[in-house]
Amino acid sequence: MSEQTDDLQKTEEPTPKKLEEGRKKGQVAVSREINTWVTLLVGTLVVGLMAPRLMTDIRVSLLPFVETPHLQSLDTAAAGGQVLFSAFSDAIGALMLPLLFFFLIAAAGPILQNGLVYSPKVLEIKSEKISPVKGVKRVFSVKQFMEFVKGLFKISIVGAVGLIVVLPTLSALDIVPTFSLPDFLSTLHGLVMKMLIAVVAVLFVIAFIDVIFQRQQHHKEMRMTKQEVKEEFKQSEGDPVVKQRLRQIRQDRARNRMMQAVPEADVVVTNPTHYAIALKYKPADMAAPILVAKGADLVAQRIRELAAEHDITIVENPPLARALYASVELDAEVPAEHYQAVAEVISYVWGLKGRSMPVETPRAG
Question: pTM for the full model?
Answer without folding.
Answer: 0.46
